[in-house]
Amino acid sequence: QKEVEQDPGPLSVPEGAIVSLNCTYSNSAFQYFMWYRQYSRKGPELLMYTYSSGNKEDGRFTAQVDKSSKYISLFIRDSQPSDSATYLCAMSTDSNYQLIWGAGTKLIIKP
Amino acid sequence: ETGVTQTPRHLVMGMTNKKSLKCEQHLGHNAMYWYKQSAKKPLELMFVYSLEERVENNSVPSRFSPECPNSSHLFLHLHTLQPEDSALYLCASSQDPAGGLDEQFFGPGTRLTVL
Hints:
The complex is a heterodimer of chains A (111) and B (115). Helices cover 0% and strands 54% of the residues of chain A.
């Protein structure tokens, strides 16, 4: 079993839709949960992070962590074609800097 | 130049060639990383340097050899590669890999094809 599971997609939705991207994980010691966005021919860039459980909102983006279910989500409201990218989840513990990554979900927003 | 830069952006090499990938960070960070990214697979951490000392070597084949001459530069020397080594090689840097949240900043990657 992989430590972090993420559906690689692609996920194709119409412009303006609400998008839900998800990862599940097996290591209960993970405390930091990150979402990176990677545009074509670019490296990943940090989009949002949360510590432990709860929600975090930043503009059209909301990150949720459910530690009891070992499940994290990224919601995108009013999706735009410019949101088309691969979204990677990554996690780490308090004591180890090494990030454990999901495979990334390719998101396509159709105009 | 700003952020993290990588050269070359594309590289095609034969199995008997020797080549090197270069990474430079302009962020004043203390740590640098090499990752391998293959289609539909998680990023694989290959090497980590902190203050020019190698702190991580994740069972990477010896045909990959890293070099960190100073905190701003990182190289990945390649020799006798296999076709399965074809992938996007990403360099990243961060301020302090001491645990917890330490944002990593990535370069655009080198797309490597081994024939």
